[in-house]
Amino acid sequence: MTLLRWLDLAVLFVKELLLSAWQTAWLILSPRRDWRPAIVAVPLDVTSDAGITLLADMVTLTPGTTSVHVSEDRSTLYVHVMNSAGPEETAEAIKTGFETKIRKVLP
After folding, report:
1. Pfam families given for it (predicted)?
2. pLDDT digit string (tens) for 73-99?
3. Which DSSP symbol is given to 44?
């Protein structure tokens, strides 16, 4: 069962990687350059060092996003987003996507 959860996380990561690569390329090549960069605070439910590290790494490896900082109390991950729909929407997308899957494989 654990192997299936890791596979599910890997499939999500590849899907997000491809989608983000396409969106980032489109944004860069677009003549309008209608960018909405933001630093977004993502409240963390994952608690282990391994879980936080995996989440931060997956966010950073996804084009258009970079993990910037983890708060001292390890309750918030700060993420730079190249093109944000809004801070709440961006944080929610990270939480319902990567973080939910990571919590199934790591505490």
Report:
1. MNHE (PF01899)
2. 999 999 999 999 899 999 999 999 999
3. -
